Amino acid sequence: MKLHFIGADHEVTGSLHLLDVCGLKIAVDMGMEQGENLYQNAELPVKYADIDYILLTHSHIDHAGMIPFAYKNGFNGTVLCTKATAELADIMLRDSAHIQMSDAEYHNRKARRAGQKTIEPIYDVFDADGVMKHFRSVDYHELVELGDGVSARFIDAGHLLGSASIELFISESGISKKLVFSGDIGNFGKPLIRNPEYIHEADYVIMESTYGNRLHKTGIDHMEDMVRIIQETLDRGGNVVFPAFAVGRTQELLYLIRNIKEAGLIHGHDGFPVYVDSPLAVEATDVFHKNMTDCYDEKTKKLVERGVNPISFPGLHLSITSEESKAINFDAAPKIIISASGMCDAGRIRHHLKHNLWRRECSVVFAGYQAAGTLGRVLLDGAKTVKLFGEEIHIQAHIETMAAMSSHADQSGLLNWISAFSEPSRVFLVHGNDESMETLSGLIQEQTGFATELPCSGSIFNLATNQWTLVTSLVPTVKTEKPARVQKKTAYDQLLAAYNKLLAAVKANQNGANKDLAKFTDQILSLYQKWIR
Questions:
Q1: What would the CATH number be for the domain defined by 222-405?
Q2: Cα–Cα distance for residue pair 266/101, rounded to 1 Å
Q3: Topology of 2-215+407-470 in CATH?
Q4: What confidence category does residue 515 fall into, taking pLDDT thresholds of 50, 70 and 90?
Q5: d(CA 10, CA 33)
Q6: Under the phi-then-psi rule, with left for phi > 0, alpha for psi from -120 to 50, and beta for the rest, what region is 130?
Q7: What confidence score (pLDDT) does residue 290 get?
């Protein structure tokens, strides 16, 4: 009955924990590290093929982004999550795969010219599509048996559509324990989705601490803040650029803009256009359009019941193609541009920043967390110039922030969430930097008396005996080639990778037309005859 700490320990991204209980290997999240990587993560102590379940708290890449990599390397188990998380993960993992492939191809073009080694993406779209067949969705509060002695239940975490805290009930060798993984705990009073649900009983709580040392500003009216920024920027003849997470934040912004337009709060710019420029955001918005009433708050439910789309309005344009994206910046009319990624480290937003950062009439508005090492954090920290696509850009636009829109609970929200528990044996703080974890740990002990731990990656805790099996120390990351990609070793390795893609294509055509399948078969047999020795 062991709990392994692997990812997002003393760091904010790359969430991964592994349970070895009742003969099962259960991973909770399998996230990708993003932004600055301060510490080395321990190796997964089992093969991916040995993992029976991945319990996914929500679809953000720092929690879900390495699931296709696990599939590529042998994972054949079940990914368990809520219905909304499964639908969002489907589009987010495919998008992540395209980014990995595009980045690798860009690197390889330069590497070939320089006579350097090429790299391959950590996974591709075949891996992302393939692993989705292993997803199984469950309802909130549904008790799901994973095996003899192990059950799980998903509770609304209020962080993102479909996000969850996970209750795990374990009984082995006459010992019963309950674990709660918080996932990312949501901010209270957010648009569209419900507030986080409180949980009251647990032996062990594994809790995020992202904002453990910060308080969101109180008394802020999101609508008032947005109206001011939009009015002032449009009056100057500029564009309002929102770097926004494609899933969650984009839809919240659309909800607020719909309310602003409906109430006629912007003067002198009737029908001002709003562009959502991100194929991923467009797909995610379609998921939000669907009847996800089990995730919506009461106000949004009532809108849906009246037949009102809460995130659509006149003047909204959804840009999908590259041509549509490029046309936005050749239109001189003042406008709102919402584009991904939210931290400005990839995607179309970088093109919009290139065209707008140097214009003093424009505004760039951050409405979410900006991790250290990302372009978003650089801009918020007051940089005077940045380099985009090899060009140095002098920053003259107004840099605004709406931190109160964070989808993470602040220090007060985290303390309220953990205080709802009767006394757990241990509270393990994860998913935060050193300062956040240490500050929150002290406050939890002071206000609740709960025993808190700040585990490092590689540490192992015995749940049955309430003791550490292995305690590790932080290992600083050595700056080498990005760990998100691996070098191609031999031509034979490439051949094996091509074989796996061919196998995926065969499986994907299981229900294809007989004529097409016969042609496909002939092509494969022709290759076989050519290369068999």
A1: 3.40.50.10890
A2: 42
A3: Metallo-beta-lactamase; Chain A (3.60.15)
A4: confident
A5: 12
A6: alpha
A7: 75
